[in-house]
């Protein structure tokens, strides 16, 4: 009887050890899965930031073959295509993403961005209009302002630009866009002020410096503004100012500015030299 009692006990112990082994294997397997998820997430983040955009496109395309229904991978593909300036493909990728489970309002903003990059203004406006008004982000309002600009709805554009400036800690880029909007509509003084604000926010933003010179040139003010600039930048801005003077009909002033640009540049300024040669020959 004693042996009969012991046998079930031993068997039970064996099953217990087997169950523990199986549970241990499951735990290890889950641990490896968790590690793989973390590793994949890190790799995806790297691809979206420092990686070559076309390499990132290939990475996400390959990943989507295994998991075609994952919105995060589709988002990575759409973002990578946008970074690679493959706008037509980006539009398709963003469009597909916005119809997937797990899509976010910011994905529609991404679609609108891609559409604007392809000059599909009307469709971009429709996409932005469909985004819930509660989704208030700097990027959304910046795009809204650009669409309003394209429609020449200046008051609406100003309102959107003002809102977007208030939603970011780095407003220089949007200030530059706002200034260019004012330049386009002929508000040269307003444009000059806005470009100046952009430069104060980011003294390295050369586009704003060049636009500032254009705004001054449009008012026949051919002196360089007092802003931070390197010797090379000074030469380039003088060249821009010279072309602006020529456009206004002030050819003599334009020639003088071109000569100054050539002498200021630390290297041979081929573009300015050609411009001056063309003016003197004409």
UniProtKB/TrEMBL annotation:
Q: Where are the TPR repeats?
A: 37-70
List the InterPro entries: TPR-like_helical_dom_sf, TPR_rpt
Per the record, the domain of life is Bacteria
Keyword ATP-binding in the entry? The reply is: no
Which SUPFAM superfamilies does this chain map to?
Answer: TPR-like
Asked if ATP-binding is a keyword of the record, the answer is no
What are the UniProt keywords, alphabetically?
A: TPR repeat
Official protein name in the record: Tetratricopeptide repeat-containing protein
Source organism per entry reads Cribrihabitans marinus
């Amino acid at each position: 009887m004693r042996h009969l009692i012991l046998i079930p006990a031993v068997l039970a112990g064996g099953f217990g050890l087997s169950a523990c082994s199986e549970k241990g294997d499951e735990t290890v397997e889950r641990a490896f899965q968790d590690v793989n998820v973390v590793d994949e997430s890190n790799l995806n983040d790297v691809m979206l930031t420092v990686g070559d955009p076309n390499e990132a496109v290939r990475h996400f395309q390959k990943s989507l073959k295994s998991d075609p229904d994952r919105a995060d991978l589709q988002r990575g593909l759409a973002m990578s295509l946008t970074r690679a300036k493959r706008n037509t493909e980006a539009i398709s990728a963003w469009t597909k993403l916005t119809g997937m489970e797990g899509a976010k309002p910011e994905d529609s903003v991404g679609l609108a961005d891609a559409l604007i990059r392809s000059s599909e203004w009307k469709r971009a406006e429709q996409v932005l209009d469909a985004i819930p008004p509660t989704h208030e982000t700097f990027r959304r309002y910046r795009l809204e302002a650009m669409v309003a600009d394209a429609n020449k709805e200046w008051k609406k554009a100003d309102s959107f630009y003002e809102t977007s400036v208030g939603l970011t800690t780095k407003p220089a880029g949007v200030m530059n866009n706002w200034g260019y909007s004012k330049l386009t509509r002929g508000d040269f003084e307003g444009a000059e002020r806005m470009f100046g604000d952009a430069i104060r926010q980011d003294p390295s933003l050369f586009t704003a410096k060049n636009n500032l010179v254009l705004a001054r040139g449009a008012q026949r003010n051919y002196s360089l503004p007092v802003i931070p600039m390197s010797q090379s930048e000074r030469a380039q801005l003088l060249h821009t100012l010279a072309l602006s003077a020529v456009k206004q009909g002030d050819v003599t002033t334009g020639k003088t500015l071109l000569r100054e640009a050539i002498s200021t540049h630390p290297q041979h300024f081929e573009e300015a030299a050609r411009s001056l040669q063309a003016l003197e020959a004409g």
